[in-house]
Amino acid sequence: MASSEELARYFAAGTGLDPLSEAFSRRGAVMPFRGKRRLPPEEMQDVWLELQSQPAKPGKRLAYIHVPFCANHCLFCGFYRNAYVPQTGADYTELVIEEIRREAQTNALRHNPIHAVYLGGGTPTALSAEELSRIITTVRTELPLAPDCEITVEGRIIHFTPDKIDACLEAGANRFSIGVQTFDTDVRKRQGRRSSREEAVRFLEYLRDQDRAAVVIDLIYGLPGQTLDVWQRDLETAADIGPDGLDLYGLNLIPTTPLFKAIEAGKFPATPNLNQIGAFYRTGAEFFRRRNWRQISNNHWARTTRERNLYNLLIKQGADCIAFGSGAGGSIGPVGYGLSGDLAVYADDIRAGRKSLGMMMISDELSALRTLVTAGFEVGHLDLGQLDRTSGRAMTPVLEPLLAQWQGAGLLSLAGGIVELTTAGRFWYSNLISAVHDILTLELGPSRDAA
Q: How does residue 159 score in pLDDT terms, banded at 50, 70 and 90?
């Protein structure tokens, strides 16, 4: 069993402190590649062909389609790859359609319905109305979708014109996720967002008034120049628009982004520090609790029953995800894979009849346990009895000293074998997940067995 010293490294700061601002010295991240062994390139195509020949395992499935184009590079974004050029977009659309049609004929895709499809990026709405329509129509006609399949198009306000909205709706999209980030005009323009607050509001009201799909707004807290007053106005503006759902994300300041470099060079004010941003999360959580919005996950709230957030919940639960498009990532059973982010390589592979595999990994035997913990904490709830049953041994006694310490620090409540995260626990959820993952590896991994 893990020693007290081994557990103590994951303890939160003691009682009497504000857990939202002082529980930990940094916000951790859940490492997606943990417990996965990378396959050598020469083995990937054979593994892929074997996966395609086997019927899918029972359970809900997903499809992800990556569109690696943007109208411009937002300063905070670490995922920018390619500017949209009409001919490049047209060629790329043909390749993605070919990839979907080819795989739709395989055993792996013909069995078991797909419950959520996500067009992400990049910025899918950088494509033309015809290109968006053709991709979504191909998805609807070629893939085995569940009758209530959630089909999300991720987009930005700029260039998402009425004809593109109509094209998406007519083709079958039933959910839009719009990256607003902030409504404050000055903060927006500092991040490379071209539209003003008024333009953003008008666009979202137009999209809402179509009343044919769920509308979800993404906001980011912790941006340079974004005070709590600015954040409060962002929340009020979003609520007044009346979307079906809303995401609140803390800024992830990636060292390779233009924003990080601008702050380092003194061109932008510093972002709020760790001791400050917890207040942003608390403000948002309390704002929506008072308005009786449902908290679907740590970062997501729903105002109407139309919003399900199905793709994001199922991906955390370990559902198989079939990936299409340059730079896309997916998984089938224990095999995770990513497609080449190089457009030329992707194009050559698709035209040659190959899956454009850039990397492939195999999960270890603890994958189901990690997924259970991740999915549970994602929605603020963990059933310790289920964890014991899945692990095949009593993990509750191992974790109880740590959980008790977290409870004393104000991060969770523990009763009847059920862990419920507090608002502070939901803010620090990635730290909690990473800690439990570490302890599972320590307790059940090969190094412990060898000892």
A: confident
